[in-house]
Design goal:
The chain contains 16 helices and no strands. The chain is mainly alpha-helical. It has three domains: 94 residues, Serine Threonine Protein Phosphatase 5, Tetratricopeptide repeat; 51 residues, no CATH class; 97 residues, Serine Threonine Protein Phosphatase 5, Tetratricopeptide repeat (Alpha Horseshoe), CATH 1.25.40. The N and C termini lie far apart (51 Å).
Amino acid sequence: MAVDGAELARLRKELEATQQPAFATLRDYLRQVRALRVRDIEYVTKYGAELLARHSRKLTLDELWEVHEQVAVAAMEAGCKQLALRLVQNVHKRFPEGARASRLTGMYFELMHTPAEAEALYAKELEKDPCNAIILKRMVGLRRGQGDLTGASTLLREYLQVHTTDWVAWEEAADLYLQLQMYQQAVFCLEELLLHQPADISRHLLLADTLYTLGGAHNWRAARSYYSGVIELSKGQNLRALCGVCACAAQLSGIRRGAGGSSTGEEELPRLAGERLQQQYAVHCPAKLPLVRGMLKAQGLL
């Protein structure tokens, strides 16, 4: 089975097309969600519960409990407390001393607004294994849910010192630092994230935006480089990247004048970006074209 977004979309359509999806469709859909780490709460809750209700005996033992955990988490996020409780109890009964059972039980305590019980449970598990990735990430989630973003970022930093290849954790760390307005730390996390997700345009854009926010000639030039990469990846279709190149050019123009001019390449890129931006708005949103031209004029690009 191929693991990609297109296959996931195809399976989603199959689920929507029938009132009683086949076992293979249900199983493969949940596998795709797990493999791609997609957050699809409503569908995972609905169709995962259906798979367990109708076809649990057809699953291997390992996959049966993987699905239990997957659906339990989705059910908690969806607020389906009864379904979540039943699944958590099943996992706890099967693995009474397991870290996964403790994680799910702690998450259920969080759902029921008893964070002290959840924290006590997590602390007990960390006494057994201070490097337990599952529990450490739940502690991060608990701190974040309580609004303690600084505490969450500290725990996540400690986690990433051990689990350096967890790109989801790098993404969460970047998000935390952005909320804390710690932009330099966010840049570091986003650069690490791009090592694991090099073709994801949204991550390139977020890194470029963060560098632009940091400011200064070095950061504006770096931001321009990432915006340019997005323009190339999107074949000139990404408006945010086109605007970003123009904005960086405007910020750098004063510095270049003070330094005695600029290279032809530095002038050519924003000019081409501005032309492409006008072309896009002329076709797709002509009513806003005067605003775009006004922006480009103010930036010295028109």
